[in-house]
Amino acid sequence: MMSIAVAHGHDAHVIGLEDAAHEGPAPKRIITGFGFWIFLLSDIVMFSCFFAAFAVLSGQTAGGPSGAELFNLRNVAIETAFLLLSSFACGMASIAAEVRSHLWFYMAMAVTCLLGLGFLTIEFREFADLVARGAGPSRSAFLSAFFALVGCHGLHVSAGILWLLTMMAQVFAKGFRADILRRFLCFALFWHALDIIWVAVFSVVYLLGSAA
Amino acid sequence: MSDSHGVPQQADLAPGDQEAVSVKIRVLGYLVGLGLAVLLTATSFFIAGTDLVWQPSIPVAIIVLAIAQMGVHLVFFLHITTGPDNANNVLALAFGLLIVFLVIGGSLWIMANLNERMMPMDQIMQMQR
User: Fold this and answer.
1) What is the rounded end-to-end Cα distance, in angstroms, of chain B?
2) How far apart (Å, rounded) are the C-alpha atoms in residues A147 and A103?
3) Is the dihedral of CA B104, B110, B115, B116 positive or negative?
4) What is the value of pTM for the model shown?
5) Inter-chain contact A88–B4, Cβ cutoff 8 Å?
6) ipTM of the complex in this document
């Protein structure tokens, strides 16, 4: 009790109680960002279930083709480059939003969008090619897990692109208002998190799949 | 720090937000992150296809490189750092990682154990005859 009484005096920092000296609720930007961060982490936990399923089933090819026979690593490298560069462009859009530069914001967001669409195109063609070769999701447990995991990531990227276009329209219509900037903070977190998940996908699914 | 009392304290940071630094330094931060990520990705792809290294070490190397790259993304793109104003974000991340580890590690462990204890498939077929 004694030390708390001292903290209310004039040297709170001496006994390290500065954090207790906050007054009132945190700013809305922090609450929104933290809440969305919690959502992203639960999304990552959901992905971890798909990863666990894939890791358990990756050997169960039921006499069908294995990853080493199916995967085209050159395509995967291009997909990886597209997504990484679009993550970088999204970072540039964050900076542009912070300095309130409309031109740079639209340019960075357009680049982010195009790279994301390029990623989706390559992925869609890969899926169509696999199905055409008789290696669709119903062929084996391995392929079911593969399509579920990679397809789930692809769905997230598609949703992210819709969100990206919405953000561009909102900035166009309403400008860099505080609430729009909060939404954009969440979008940027989402887009970067998708790239993190893709790192796990290309390492575990494609590289380990074709090495083993 | 001695004049911190009475002055509004530096509040926490939202995840994704950075301390106030100039645009130049922020762009540089993203460029460093991009460079490191490209380096790690290229190493991963190179190791997966090469005969130069001891083959059994390849899966471990790929996993380690992937974890390193996720760290690079977290720090340079999402700005989740170990600073005191980031404590809430890091704690949430740590809890998320614990669950991820339990789900993936636990599934692999249990399923490997089951596989080991299961009768070989041809013997099961024999019994069903």
Assistant:
1) 81
2) 39
3) positive
4) 0.85
5) no
6) 0.83
